[in-house]
Amino acid sequence: MNKGRIKWGMLGGGQGAFIGIAHRIAAYMGERYELVGGAFDVDYDRGVAFAKALELDTDRVYASVEALIKEENKLPKSERMEVVSIVTPNFLHYPMAKSLLEGGFHVICEKPMTMTAAEAEELQELVQQTDRHFCLTHTYTGYPMVRQMKTMIADGEIGEIQRVDVQYYQGWINPFIHEKEKRKSVWRLDPAKSGVSCCMGDIGLHAFNLAEYTTGLQVDRLLSDLNYLYEDNNLDVDGTVLIRMGKAKGVIRSSQIATGEENNLTIQVYGKDGGLKWCQEHPTVLTLLKEGKPLQVFKPGNPYNAQLTMDSTKMAPGHPEGIFDAMGNIYKGMAKAIREEQAFEGEYPTVQDGVRGMQFIEKVVQSNRDGNVWINL
């Protein structure tokens, strides 16, 4: 097994790509990874220029994932990339991940993991066959207070769960959706690049993942009502999904036409003995509700938190941590897996989360298409 920093590559994430910056900051944060190269851009020359700006060895800039796999595997094991991050549009996730796993690399992949549930299930089998680690960057699971919420629910702090309510509202598509030509310029509204869903496949998926991650329950039935706004618009931009998780019931509300909203992700879980609330725009605050008692506020960095929460906190109490820190915790968990170190349960989302997510997306679209009916998940 290699020692030292994990040699790491990227597919996509080049000049001007915010998500690429997020991944690089997250990886550098724990000082566990070293970026050594990648295929950063569909334009090879732009990729080389980007690598020069980062002072990387341009000999390890590749024109394609196939070239990367071929050339990296020629290097001594101690020098070659061990893990590669996929930060490209959705339609490239599956073929790239499949090639990397077959080529012997661990994979960190943006969500959604694939374009279809069948592809996701194939990747799940391939991960098992190749004995590689696969991390899906559901970033919000990396927030310390989300992990505290998960731990408190598992410890029975709020009792048997009765209701789950998750909201994820953005407004960024609103300036594009109302004009036909502008709609054509948004790749997330193109089924060939985005898949069968825009809003639910992008942010509704995060809401679904958080519901299952924090509660430890699985959605077993759902009913959806999606909004496309215009007949010539092929993908949803807004929607509501009723969910059942065993005895518990709930709702997932997602919109990318919630005018003026930025990144309003909120989860509320109510049990027999109490409730917990967390909002991504105020991520250092977890609120506990109990009947007849004052609200209790939990904040990161304090010793009353769980071990998983403390291990996920980098700063002293009162110093806010944000989205880069959350993704950094996921990269940290993946590093532990690659280096075969002891880790906490739930430190990073796996290929199984990717399969659940793709099944959710397809069932949501099916429920809406079939007339807003209940469907088993």
TrEMBL record:
Residues 6-134 form the Gfo/Idh/MocA-like oxidoreductase N-terminal domain. It comes from Reichenbachiella faecimaris. GO terms for molecular function: nucleotide binding. InterPro entries: Gfo/Idh/MocA-like_OxRdtase_N (IPR000683), Gfo/Idh/MocA_oxidoreduct (IPR051317), GFO_IDH_MocA-like_dom (IPR055170), NAD(P)-bd_dom_sf (IPR036291). Signal peptide: none annotated. It holds the Pfam family GFO_IDH_MocA_C3. PANTHER family: CONSERVED EXPRESSED OXIDOREDUCTASE (EUROFUNG) (PTHR43708), OXIDOREDUCTASE (PTHR43708:SF3). Residues 146-276 form the GFO/IDH/MocA-like oxidoreductase domain. This is Oxidoreductase. SUPFAM superfamilies: Glyceraldehyde-3-phosphate dehydrogenase-like, C-terminal domain, NAD(P)-binding Rossmann-fold domains.
